Amino acid sequence: MKGALTLFVCGLVLASCAGLLPAQEDLGEIQKRSYSFKDAGKDIEYALYVPSSYKKDKPAPLLVLLHGLGSNPQQVIRYQGVTAEAEKRGYIVVAPFGYNERGWYGSQGKGKGRFGVRAGDPENLGELSEKDVLNVLGIVRKELNVNSSRIYLAGHSMGGGGTIHLGAAYSDIWAALVPMSPAYMGSHDILEKIKAPMMVVTGDKDTTVPVQMVRPFARRMKETNSKHVYKEIAGGNHGTTFYRNPKLMTEVFDFLDGYGLQVEEEDALPQEPLRIFTNKSGRKIEARIVSSEGTKVTIARKDGKAFTIALSSLSEADQDYIQTWIAESATEP
Q1: CB within 10 Å: which end of the chain, N or C, has fewer?
Q2: Which domains, from first to last, does the chain contain?
Q3: Other CB atoms closer than 10 Å to residue 294's CB: what's the count?
Q4: pTM of the shown model
């Protein structure tokens, strides 16, 4: 329970943050936020996206998104497809700064990283960078109704290395991980500490984080857990392959949608009751409704594994049940 305890403590020591619960006009928009980071002695920025479908009485999945070296929260949250998929699927997305644009999220130790360091950076830059991610996660979980079983972590380049590091250090938090072109330079033994399914994505023409650096990690990863996925994009580079690739973001969110944690009963948030759903072929599954979007509905089994299916594929009784649920949800405050 290391991660959960850390988040609890972080929540207690947060002094203040700019803004309270998102106003109705903020839903469906990227928000630029900040909070007072006492250990750093200054305000730290983060970016937040809350989908227009968000309701305070219904827990929503959360994606924590980490930027690369020299980048910032406002840039990474604007990667093409990120907020579009979040809006479609009902995800909250938050992008911490990690103290600054070169903190490495603790993946290179508690001190200054080996790359991008500047004069004036604090000696404990890595420690502050890691704490900032946890602080922001704590703020979002305190302000918004986050589904504790569906908290995900993803990042690009330096953020990909941070995803691997934090995915191992706080393994009880994350339902799934997506390091993209990960600039991870530590031991591959870290994979033994990662519990969550992981999707590693890289391009075979990446000259910043060469594929030759990622492939050995991916091989070890597949040996460690059969649920891990490695995607190597032919002709893919370090930049536009990720930030101008909405199709890839659809694949990333499809991967995330497939996984959830089992939460302890005392930590569980209110959920819809389990029900036996039957499709038109007679196949049955015990699950609960998570969300609906247009002609599709997302349901989740007791183990947290989620499925998005066409409403028309279900029995008439199930369709009636879901339509009633949608109608009741629309009238709730």
Answers
A1: C
A2: 2-265 (3.40.50.1820), 272-331 (2.30.30.700)
A3: 8
A4: 0.74
